[in-house]
Design a protein that fits this description.
The chain is an alpha/beta fold and 312 residues long. The chain has nine helices and eleven strands. It has a domain of 207 residues: Rossmann fold. It is globular and about 65 Å long.
Length: 312
């Protein structure tokens, strides 16, 4: 498809820092001769060009708002204009929303000689953010809204006061389950759009089973995790099948911790397992590259490929 080729060219231009790319509106000729309508394939009969490939993308950014994420948020905001430039040039009708990795959760910790003590933490639990200072009329940003990149820069500045137990997979499910049921995020995802998820974190996923009792010194994020297959199964059902959604994870690739100008990142084993479970519609990039331009390029290329493969 012409759109796919155009997106790929713009993604490469974004990644290498090249200038604007133009395309010949007269056709897809490699030699520049003719209009493209008189070539040897002009008389062939095939499926209409819009039979395959979506024209809409709904993208949710799940951003870690724990204490170590300030530099990464700043770099994401700085590179977002290039990401949007690719989408704008593609002609896709997109919308973008932001939530965090923090969730409301509680569990009981049993201490010797003391008994069970409730542990509680609060978070957005998948609610798409609409800060008062960002002048948003809804919980997402649509193509054509005033100052798309400026609004994203405002809403993506989620701060560093969130929970230290990051739960991006749980936050994604919350966004499209609980926050749909209570009408917080209602209207975001369109049934004829590709659903895209971008997760940005420097920690392993800590999404856990909701009924938890721990005996000290057990650690929540090492002992009570919910299988990543549950989150894949949920998204398959919500989006209408495994081909109708895609996920890009920007995290610690392992083995072990990694370091960059952003600081250090733990190995995100559960996000890697999630990526492997999803297959070709998922990609994992390193948060330790020191610049998120490449990671955003990886996400855009993945979303392009998934979108082009959807049969409408």
């Amino acid at each position: 498809m012409m759109r796919a080729r155009s997106i790929a060219i713009w993604v490469v231009a974004f990644a290498c820092g090249c200038g604007p790319v133009t395309r010949n509106s007269g056709g897809d000729d490699d030699d520049g001769g003719g209009s493209g309508s008189n070539g040897p394939d002009a008389g062939q009969v095939g499926p209409p060009v819009d039979a395959i490939g979506c024209s809409k993308m709904d993208i949710l950014f799940v951003i870690d708002n724990s204490g170590s994420m300030g530099e990464e948020q700043t770099n994401l905001i700085a590179n977002f204009p290039g990401f949007i430039a690719v989408l704008d040039q593609s002609g896709l009708e997109y919308r973008v929303a932001v939530t965090t990795t923090a969730r409301n959760y509680n569990y009981n910790m049993t201490f010797p000689g003391v008994g069970s003590i409730p542990q509680n933490t609060s978070g957005e639990s998948g609610a798409m953010l609409k800060p008062a200072n960002c002048n948003m009329t809804k919980r997402w940003i649509d193509k054509g809204d005033p100052d798309v990149t400026g609004t994203f820069g405002c809403v993506a500045n989620v701060g560093t006061g969130g929970a230290s137990d990051e739960m991006p997979l749980g936050a994604v499910r919350d966004a499209f389950e609980d926050r749909m049921q209570d009408n917080t995020n209602t209207g975001f995802h369109r049934p004829d759009a590709l659903l895209g998820v971008v997760i940005l974190t420097d920690e392993n996923d800590c999404s856990y089973e909701q009924s938890v009792n721990l005996a000290f010194p057990q650690v929540l994020c090492e002992s009570q995790m919910e299988p990543v297959a549950n989150y894949k199964a949920f998204l398959d059902g919500y989006a209408g099948g495994p081909s109708r959604w895609a996920a890009a994870m920007v995290a610690g690739p392992g083995p072990g911790t990694c370091s960059s100008s952003f600081g250090s990142a733990d190995e995100a084993t559960r996000l890697r397992d999630f990526k492997n479970a999803v297959g070709t519609n998922a990609v994992m990039s390193s948060i330790c590259d020191g610049n998120l331009a490449t990671s955003l390029m990886d996400a855009m290329m993945l979303f392009q490929s998934a979108c082009d493969a959807i049969i409408l």
